[in-house]
Design brief:
- The chain has ten helices and 17 strands.
- By secondary structure, it is of the alpha+beta class.
- It has two domains: 255 residues, Zn peptidases (Aminopeptidase); 90 residues, Elongation Factor Tu (Ef-tu), domain 3.
- The strands form two sheets. Strands 1, 2, 3, 10, 11, 12, 13, 14, 15, 16 and 17 form an eleven-stranded mixed beta sheet that branches.
């Protein structure tokens, strides 16, 4: 049954909605409201931590083990730091940005009166000295222009210091029909996959020998904060963080630096900066993928971390792993992911959840 899963127009429409919501770390409420509205009908219970993370509970045939599957709802973005007298907005980053991807990009400022579109700009190139032209423009030298001519005009728009900012980047299905382009795929894709697992189990009345906790965590990009608090609400026995993986199939990247590729299946993370996964759990997931004939990739990311970095340290420790959707150009205005990878990630997690009974989970840590 799980191998029959396919993305439909309605479900892709929900992914489109998710990616286009302006919701950087600490400002996730609009995205959380939409997630709750969409997913609560598939859950037996909805829980929440005090930072905002939502947890959708689906009961199986046994209360234990508690299986936590989670994606983080926040995206990288910016925050207003000041408004100049001429009507320009200064800003700083929320989460990790590479300064060189910012100039000339449109952004959306979420003010108290609504969303205002602007563009990231800097000193015009025509006015740069030869020496300045050779230097990289840093974020501190940039500003956002919302088309105003004074501080008063900007304030009249409803923009204040402390307001969140995110890229303006409409969701697009590529001309091939095989890939999607959008902002915030890191990690609205993880949220989407998590909720698709929940929905598919409910709508197809698929049994599972555990209790599923499908979570959307907050503030991952600024320190895995929601993962820490959500763990105490769930009290999980085992955890899967669903996140993006860095697709290395772009010019200039060596295969050993980022082995995952688009269209080759979900990645099973063997190592990252925040966690070394439980090895028996990893081998079990590989076995499920091979049994279900789901393509997969093994991946290593020495320079990154995910919510699993907190999940595996809960209480006395919990078997945890990251299953990733390979994605190009993460932490930029536009990421690209393959539809077949999204589908196969859902299939793999469905296959895993169906098999995680108490005996199996206990076998991962017994010495």
């Amino acid at each position: 049954m799980t191998n029959e899963y396919k993305l439909g127009k309605d479900t892709l429409g929900f992914l489109k909605e998710l990616t286009e919501i302006v919701a950087p770390s600490g400002f996730e409420e609009p995205a959380l409201r939409r997630v709750k509205e969409y997913a609560e009908k598939f859950a037996d219970e909805v829980r929440q931590d005090k930072l905002g993370s939502l947890i959708f509970v689906k009961k199986g045939s046994s209360e234990r083990p508690r299986v936590l599957v989670a994606g983080h709802i926040d995206e990288i973005g910016f925050i207003v730091t000041s408004i100049t007298k001429e009507g320009y907005i200064t800003f700083t980053n929320i989460g990790g940005w590479f300064d060189q991807v910012l100039l000339a990009q449109r952004v959306v400022v979420r003010g108290k009166k609504g969303e205002i579109t602007g563009v990231i700009a800097s000193k015009p190139p025509h006015l740069l000295s030869p020496e300045e032209r050779q230097k990289v423009v840093t974020m501190k030298q940039m500003f956002i222009d919302v088309g105003a001519t004074s501080k008063e005009e900007v304030e009249e728009m409803g923009i204040r210091v402390g307001d969140p900012i995110a890229p303006w980047s409409p969701f697009t299905i590529s001309a091939s029909g095989k890939t999607v382009m959008a902002k915030a795929l890191d990690d609205r894709l993880g949220v989407f996959v998590t909720l698709e697992v929940l929905r598919y189990l409910r709508e197809n009345n698929i049994g599972h020998p555990n209790t599923l906790y499908a979570a959307t965590t907050v503030q991952e990009e600024v320190g895995l904060r929601g993962a820490s608090t959500a763990s105490w609400v769930v009290d999980h026995d085992i955890a899967i963080a669903v996140d993006v993986d860095i697709a290395g199939d772009v010019p200039g990247i060596r295969p050993q630096d980022a082995p995952a590729k688009l269209g080759k299946g979900p990645s099973i993370l063997a190592f990252d900066r925040s966690m070394i996964p439980n090895q028996r759990f990893k081998e079990f997931i590989i076995e499920v993928a091979e049994e279900e004939k789901i393509p997969y990739q093994l991946s290593v990311i020495p320079g990154g971390g995910t919510d699993a970095g907190r999940f595996h340290l809960y209480r006395s420790g919990r078997p945890s792993i990251v299953i990733g959707v390979p994605t190009r150009h993460i932490h930029s205005h536009v990421g690209i992911a393959h539809i077949s990878d999204i589908e196969n990630t859902v299939k793999l997690i469905l296959g895993v959840v169906k098999r995680l009974d108490r005996e199996k989970v206990e076998s991962f840590t017994y010495i």
